[in-house]
Amino acid sequence: MTALVVALGGAYGVHLLYTAVAFGWRGVQPGPRLRRRRRPADRFHDWLVQAGLGDHRLGELIGAAALLVAVGAVLGWMVFGGELAPAAVGVAFAVVPALAARAGRERRRAGARESWPRLLEELRIKTTTLGRSIPQALFEVGRRAPQEMQPAFEVARREWLLSTDFERTLDVLRSRLADATADTVCETLLVAHQIGGNDLDRCLAALIEDRVMDLQGRKDAASRQAGARFARSFTLVVPLLMALVGMSIGDGRAAYHSPTGQVLVVVAIALMAVCWTWAGRIMRLPEERRVFVGAGGEA
Description:
76% of the residues lie in helices and 0% in strands.
């Protein structure tokens, strides 16, 4: 029995040595380490970066939400009175920073989608026609990127000047941009930089065509949804106007102070939130998932 255990241990050691030399596998597991799914914390960090809040601390966002809760509660008490309705209004105000950040995120992502075809075309021309090195061309293109994207390229450029490690530089860039297209571009440039070859022009041309088709498809979908998105605003505007009108009729304001009125106000706010969320979900266009993630986040 002891001889069998020793033989199995020796065979497994030979397996580890061979796979480490032949395939570059690391660790004591039988095969290569599989990439894990991204953690919620990593996805949340990407969301903050895409919204332009990557440099803000979570405590600052929580503090802003708490302040809006207090403001909403005061306004709710001035309009509806009681305790339950002001609390519900305060909770509703707490989501305002998240909604504003989401709107900023969509605006920044739309700007990036608009810019990537042009940036990729410039990158292709500089690397293939003008003979620039890949790092030099990348940073030159970054200076002509949209204002929201330029800080990421600048941080990556500083990393390159300090380390001259292009893989690490691209990890910094994709972490700062947190964008699926940026991940693909960085991986393409990394492979071309490491192994060379004449396929960079073809790969960039194919990527440009893919980005243009994706952009055009999203624009077409958004134009078809324009009327529905306008109608979505009525889920908030109409109930609020009806509440204000009800306050001005007879003893409408006093009705909100009653226990039944307080419960109905809370139910109405909840229904508004459900309708708004549901309408936004069914009109949401599919988002690209990040595939190539370096040191900036685990895959």
